[in-house]
Amino acid sequence: MERGAKEKNHQLYKPYTNGIIAKDPTSLEEEIKEIRRSGSSKALDNTPEFELSDIFYFCRKGMETIMDDEVTKRFSAEELESWNLLSRTNYNFQYISLRLTVLWGLGVLIRYCFLLPLRIALAFTGISLLVVGTTVVGYLPNGRFKEFMSKHVHLMCYRICVRALTAIITYHDRENRPRNGGICVANHTSPIDVIILASDGYYAMVGQVHGGLMGVIQRAMVKACPHVWFERSEVKDRHLVAKRLTEHVQDKSKLPILIFPEGTCINNTSVMMFKKGSFEIGATVYPVAIKYDPQFGDAFWNSSKYGMVTYLLRMMTSWAIVCSVWYLPPMTREADEDAVQFANRVKSAIARQGGLVDLLWDGGLKREKVKDTFKEEQQKLYSKMIVGNHEDRSRS
Amino acid sequence: MTKNYSGLDVSSAKIEKLWSGREDFQRIPELAINPLGDRIINAFFPEGEDQVNFRGFMRTLAHFRPIEDNEKSKDVNGPEPLNSRSNKLHFAFRLYDLDKDDKISRDELLQVLRMMVGVNISDEQLGSIADRTIQEADQDGDSAISFTEFVKVLEKVDVEQKMSIRFLH
């Protein structure tokens, strides 16, 4: 299985296919002008202000988005071209014969009765070692020995967890790995991203304080080395968050911070809008692109459908988690860029490397409605088409 | 009726969710930012109802099937297919005709224009645009645009191409 997976990793991932309908990449202006031109027998210098046919543009665009839009399909698992014998990826595949069903049954047996117990045992070992190890290291006096031990405890436990998921990871360009005082940004597909990155480098984590098992792990980890955990109330205060992150980054002895600027899990076919907070701090940004191969198991966490435990169980009953990690060269904000432009530049670099679609839409649209400002932009564009011509007419 | 939209390959259309009410449509961000999004969503719902089923959904989509060349000459005596030029124009006409009385009055035209331009144009300017449009189209002097007048104004527009959506598979 490992060999098969490694061979697949060598080809670049092809970007997600463009959907089911043919779309013209023309702008609002061009399209409406074309519609008017085809219908108008008048001379072109006397362009009218408004035509009844203008509505065709909006109508067709609306229909196209109903059939196939760019955003909503990013929030559910990617569809495969051929079945990988997991019933969870069975989207109405039609040609399922008896032989295939038998194979599938065998697969279920292997995955649930053989692989799953092994993986759960490994996961237990990994997590308990992490908690115990970091607590023990916490008792050591501060100094180089403590740092050394803390790093190695972290690394060892993450590597055990990686094995627990049977994650087969190919790291590219490891010379670009993040250094102290920097911020590592990556595209977010699932909580497993953290384990994957942390098993190859030392990072300071950023996140909200949780209760339960996660809380225990978080409290133990912070004893060994400084991570940045926020209380739920503090998360809303952007200035506080920025201040703490800046302090951490300026201390060169502290580890690089790991942040996922999308803010939510996306299904690994695209990269959505990066929130500008982490890009305002002024530290060096080390972009990382993570691309999962869905053939052996889909790693996307659809948080509205599955809870954390169900998700982990699904991960542990897939064939394997195969992914590629590319460390991109570090980037810094240039003098004439603002945070948003910088964020977009980093996002494009990540999207290009991972073979993902670069979208400007906000990942938060998973749960929230789109802001009215976008509609107002469209209305403004159209009004310019009508009013602009009106000014010409009044001049003549 | 089944013959009319059999050309659309249903298994390719990604209709995973159960379309029921208007909120389902409004959850599509690109549709929500379309100035005429609400009118388009309205076109799916039959008179007075708040739910659309799969059949109704496909019927509405069928208007946008491209017109194949070999269809133009066949079956002259049968019912007109949903994606004929006339039916496509009718679809657009219904987007303007808010109260479904088969006429586009000045008020209706103003309301639709207001949806398309937002707050960027003054009432007077919009009013004069509406007046001019009705003046140019109106032939029987009733200060409203009927379907026949609508068709006449748009007789040269390439409706077949502009109101069609091509499937890739």
Biggest sheet details of chain A: 7 strands, mixed
Instruction: Work out the helix count of chain A.
Output: 12
Tell the overall outline of chain B.
Answer: globular
Q: What's the helix-strand series of chain B?
A: HHHHHEHHEHH
Alpha-beta classification of chain B = mainly alpha
Reported by name, the CATH topology of the largest domain in chain B is Recoverin, domain 1
Quick one: CATH class of the largest domain in chain B? Mainly Alpha
Give the CA-CA distance, first to last residue of chain B.
23 Å
The low-confidence parts of chain A are 5-17, 389-396
Largest interface: A-B, 53 and 54 residues
CATH homologous superfamily of the largest domain in chain B, by name?
EF-hand
Count of extended strands of chain B: 2
Count of separate structural domains of chain B: 2
The span between the termini of chain A is 75 Å
Give the spatial strand order of the biggest sheet of chain B.
1-2
The helix content of chain A is 40-55%
Q: Strand order within the widest sheet of chain A?
A: 1-8-7-2-5-3-4
- Ranges of chain B where pLDDT stays below 50 over 5 or more residues in a row are 1-17
Please indicate the count of domains of chain A. 2
User: Helix coverage percent of residues of chain B?
Assistant: 40-55%
Rg calculated over all Cα atoms of chain B: 18 Å
Family (chain B): Belongs to the calcineurin regulatory subunit family. CHP subfamily.
Protein name (chain B): Calcineurin B homologous protein 1 isoform X2
Pfam families (chain B): EF-hand_7
GO molecular function (chain B): calcium ion binding
